[in-house]
Amino acid sequence: MTMTFVDLDVRPILRAGGEPFEEILSAVAALGPGEGLRLLATFEPVPLFSVLGAKGYSHEARELEAGDWEVLFRPTGVEKPSEAEVSIAAGDGEEWPEPVTEMDNRDLDPPEPMVRILAATETMKEGEVVSALLCREPVFLFPELEKRGHCWRGGFEPDGKTYRILVRVASQHGA
Amino acid sequence: MTGVSLSRWTMSYFAASLLALVAAELMMTLGYGFPNAPLKSPDTLVLVHVVALGWLSLLMCGALFQFVPVLVAKPLFSNTLPLPTLICLIGGIAALLLGFLTLAGRVQPVLPYFLLASALLGAGFALVLWNLGRTLWAARPLPLPARFVVIGLCSVAVAATLGIIFALVLGGATTYPPFLAIAAEGVSIHAIAGFGGWLTFTAMGVSYRLLAMFMLAPELDSPSTHAALGLGAAGLTIAIVGGVAAIWWEGQPDTALLVAGLIAVAALALYGRDMLHLYRARKRRDIELNSRMAALSLASLAASVVLMAVLLALGRLSDFIAPLVFLVAFGWLSGLGLAKLYKIVAFLTWLECYGPVLGRASTPRVQDLVIEQRAIKWFLIYFLAVWSGTAALLLEHTFAFRFAAAVMLVATSGIVVQLLCTRRLLNVGAEQRLPAGASRPRLLMSVARQS
Lengths: 175, 451
Fold this sequence. Notes:
Chain A is of the alpha+beta class.
């Protein structure tokens, strides 16, 4: 299978004493479907492997001449939110389908993010998944999802500020 | 499951606390207690405890049963305990007030009121600490706002313990000399633990989260916030531990309180800087009434700090302690409490009524439950009256103070009417009010299913 890689060379930043973490995350966020990231660094960026692993990327690292490193990050399609929390019925390790809807609710006034997620679940079919980004943990949403029988998985992204929730729609939309 | 349910009895706490606020304002209007009676008279003690326990503590307890779970994203340890807790607290407050009234000779001592008050308030606050303490313990490591609440809860334990010692001494149940010394000299420590530690520190913690949430500002976890927490905790420790030790060994807590006061000013300055940062870093340009009115309460807190510094510099703090406590209690704590109630009542009512049908039927927005143009005048009148009342106390103008209290009473009544309209969904258009599947909330309790 061929995969296109977007190149990101952070060696100039590292040599200047800078911290390229933000650039790497935004480059990853900008990747299109099926695209990977080819990262060039001055050392083997081990801490990055778990961070991007949690975002659903496998890695393949190779030392270049002069001590530099090339790392290929490939999307695996399996996204594992860090510090993941799940609803009781969500099961563990079971594969969920790709989300049919992605929403970014980070800039909405509370409780609008919750209203939009619940409204989306009403129009979806059994087993379909919606993914939403929020700016905080939706503690009042969880009981509403569970009353309707939906399963959810959620957790903060590695930046510690964005909360991602995945909701899988139940067969009968609860009482 | 990490979701947060509606706290069933929070509305009852709010209703009882608002009744106490109206009662206190009525007393001040009628000239009951300070400044018509001396500062340490039983009548003033009645008034102070209606405000500190009846209004502010019940309000804070009701709010914490709902919002500590939000702060730590874990469910409340027990949803059944808040009702017996409320009964103990209200019974204890009533017994305490009757105790003060017997001291004033206004009531016959039919029962040992002070002993009853000790038992009931001790049990009530112990239940608060147990329920919230277990909730917080299960959520370690705690986010920063919740750590402020922990300091607040430690302080209420101290304030309640000192209060129980005072009540036992006043009720004649103990003549243990150190207790007599604490009852004679420890009133300022009791007040600092109550107004400073319990009410102010807890309000600070809750405000970090609520203001960020309602204004879409990034959550703060900056060095200045950690410093505010550390300095505030240090100031309270010096005031409480140092103050009690000083009374025990030397008889006077003044030096400990002065040092603690200076540290507290630094902590409050850092807190003020954080709050300014939240308002400036907000993503919502057009903020709701609760956030705008919270700014006036924060301005009152800043004014209290300045007033305290000026009085300390002039060496007149003990002469003008009443206007300072008045500004802290009504400008800062009550102002913030009323502003946040305006949003919290609307949000909890909205969630209770429309939560079950969200996404299935067209529902009003939370903001449709309130009419801010109607409420804003009452809030502005309230704050102007509080500031005028503070000035009247500083100028020792008793009649002007009573007039200001009357205006506060009118303004508070206006706000209470707005809260009732919100709770009864009267501000929502009739065609949108109750879509199929939604149920009208009860006034005093929340009946949403507990998970």
